């Protein structure tokens, strides 16, 4: 399990729901957790039941399935609506600049694979059981259903389907779904001069459907938990506003707005090299001649502004918007730019350089300290090198589809990543699982608690911040089949996980030692009456 993301928190919350038998109330170490609604936890729970265990495979299965469905959804909509030939500014169709080889299926496949194989998704987020890929799939589908049903003038289907998906998105991640829905509807109906459609009776029906779907859960939640509504609402609002100008001020926001477009370039490489295709005269005239391209452009821009103006933004937050951008870039590459156009040559040269660097650089695995002892390191590296070299060689040959070759190169990169990079990481991460197994064996048959601030957040009644000790709590709870709760009460016969900060002035005996994330020493102790044990 990853130790540098909130994957462990998703796993822990889901496990505690199973152990407590309360599937309405998310908790962390037995304390109510308000940051995220529980839908993704329910998906993980279903996966745990499906696999019959609490393995990382079961944890990540909902993400992997969502990624496949995300790619298929992109392929379906793009193939259906993307134009495979250019339209002149007078509305007449002209042959595609790569005549005879460009079809909607080619463009759709490229866009789907650009989403799946960009560096951030392919080498990081697609390996973790996080909410964002599932949320992004739901959100992107809602975007495209706005276009799909608006073209058919089916406003009942438009509003009911997109607000149903907005409710699902809300139950996954909270308020951002409402922002995406509102901005997309307002922008597209304003652009198409159909503002009155926002007052259509179906819109009110969609809002009511959203309220019913979300409200049903919260009625059940507050029926079970007698707490003020403001406690939960304030956390949801804080989660949405904490990364914005409201929290960071104007100066830091302006600095972020200057640097963030460049951060995007490397986060979602190598396909962001295609942004050079945007530098052309009459760009908007080119984009707006095709309604589907105009929709993707406008929807990306209006929703991107929300994150562009938010200083603390993680790359995965942009996943719902990436297919919109990649659709525009792929259209410009395949349909609007000739193979000999300098704007197309520049990104292709960048891809060729990347291919050469990867082909030569993969051999560092043979002598790098963390990988050189891997079984079969030489032949694995040789195979990866040959495959990378073959694709790179193809890039240097005449081709009108070097984007397709870059997609193939990224597939080979993932093979090498699986063989050469992931195994050493597994050994490092498995340390905490083995530690938890030993702790569970040592404390079996008696209660076990986290003492004071040793486990979890800095305050026993606050789990609003990410804590890496979630990985320790998860494995210990899984092996003991019992929630690892936090307390400052001392109970006869109970074991406690405590550190040197929480133990001064206490009488106790040390049963064992352990190391919490991140290299934090702690003890398994039992408290004794004064004078019968060690006094610290």
TrEMBL record:
Residues passing through the membrane, by range: 63-82, 94-115, 127-149, 156-180, 200-220, 260-279, 291-310, 317-335, 350-368, 377-396, 402-422
Keyword Glycosyltransferase: yes
Superkingdom, taxonomy of origin: Bacteria
Keywords, comma-separated and alphabetical: Cell membrane, Glycosyltransferase, Membrane, Transferase, Transmembrane, Transmembrane helix
GO cellular component: plasma membrane
Annotated InterPro entries: LipidA_mod_glycosyltrf_83 (IPR050297)
GO biological-process terms attached to the record: lipopolysaccharide biosynthetic process
Protein name: Glycosyl transferase family 39
Organism this protein belongs to: Fibrisoma limi BUZ 3
Organism phylogeny: Bacteria, Pseudomonadati, Bacteroidota, Cytophagia, Cytophagales
